[in-house]
Specification:
The chain is built from nine helices and twelve strands. The protein folds into two domains: about 110 residues, Aminopeptidase (3-Layer(aba) Sandwich); about 140 residues, Gcn5-related N-acetyltransferase (GNAT) (Aminopeptidase, 3-Layer(aba) Sandwich), CATH 3.40.630.30. A hairpin with a 2-residue loop joins strand 2 and strand 3. It has a twelve-stranded mixed beta sheet, sandwiched between helices. The chain is globular. The protein is of the alpha+beta class and about 280 residues long.
Length: about 280
Amino acid sequence: MEGALSCRPVEPGGERELLSFLERDPVANLRLVWSVRRWGLLNLGLAEQGEFLALRAGGRIRGVLFRDNLGLWRIAARAEEARALVRAGLEMWGPPSAMAGRREDIEAMLEWFPELSSRVQRVEREVSLVLRPGDFAPRHPELAEVAGEEDLETLVGLERSFQWEYLGNVSREWEIRLRMLRLVEAGTTALARCDGRAVAKAEMEAVTPGADELGGVYCLPEFRRRGFAGAVCSLLCERSLSGGKPVRLEAREDNHAAISLYRRLGFRELWPHLVVSFKG
């Protein structure tokens, strides 16, 4: 690698250079691109925002480490660059609350940095999937509709049920309400109904020029295996794919029912994904 290495935060005004690097791989770096494009680099303290640490050599960005305001780290770099970024991040910020990314990359960081591996509290094994336009097999999108402001309370209730079932706890009410309101205002959440009752939802959690991320897919237990989850996913994916954008998502690798649904829609595996939480 030519030139001396340097690690320093990306300051407001550096958005163009940062995006030029990240959007070389808009699918892998989707969450980082979304944060920059939605919020810029002026940190208002929102959970989706944070700090970007860039590794430079020869005057160019060679890797990026993003720490969001909840302490979660995401890395956009090859192995040696990632190692240098994590070392600099530990010196600058101390240990993260969590790290997320390709399984082989996160496992390498744990092997290289004992101060991380010794603090591991929980490991969530997931799979990252992608849907590209030519692979899409929609499943009854006509059963779903884009949610409006009048559906806010319904969405909040479904999100609360989703978190309780899959996470074992529920975020604060105002956090759920604010997040659902943002999605409604952006037109990126969908509902399916049965006899007038909303029974399933899904969201495009992150929307960027190069790729979108599907998430928050939930169907009430008594209405499962009846096509409602597939319908809300199909409606949202259809809108992204019609613009030529692939759709990415992460699912727990033991959630076989969800992964089976996504595969029927045309999603294909990208890589094993890992989320590691740390003590303290």
